Please model this.
Amino acid sequence: MGMTDMKADTQHHGRRGIATARFVVAGLAALVLAGCASTPTETEVVEPARSVAEYVIGPGDTLQIFVWQHPEVSVTIPVRPDGKISTPLVEDMLAVGKTPTQLARDLEGRLGEYIRAPSVSVIVSGFVGTFENQVRVVGQAAEPQSIPYRDGMTLLDVMIQVGGLSNTAAGNRAKVIRRADGKQTEIEVKVADLLNRGKIEANIPMRPGDVLIIPQSRL
Model:
């Protein structure tokens, strides 16, 4: 074989090698892209949105009612025991059981009789809530009262809110009355051990509508 033939053969094999290498690289790239397409990345994983229940207005709540550009009818008022409110232009509107947004829309409907296209905002500044969303403490607490339920509330949270036990309380004979699925249950709780001895196992989670009863110590 002459020098010219050897040179031509070398160039031919070189071109075949380059073509083969390009084919292999293209194949690897296709595999990588296919793997990326079949495997979801972290940004593609979307968690379902969490639904958060709106606050429901209850008797005794304090409401700030703002009517845009009409300060003369913007007021801060309590919700009456009968569940209704009265503003300068709206009398005896039911507020209990509604969310602030629902009440604002209802007020806009009534105020529309006197004001052109009213825009109303309702803010709850003093929270009490409906009975179903309260924890009531009766008996020998320092300050027996109804407390608006908060997510994650515990027995210790409740006792801090009511100022602890009274001097005549039998804290370890306390009980929680709880209604669930139409049934009433009694849960014995040792409040004195929780507050005075730090027994954290007595710190049970509370539920909306719970009633904590603290009896008087036997004399």
In short: Residues 17-21, 23-52 have pLDDT under 50 and may be disordered. Strands lie at 62-67, 75-78, 84-85, 93-94, 120-126, 134-139, 146-148, 174-180, 183-189, 211-214. DSSP finds four helices and ten strands in the chain.
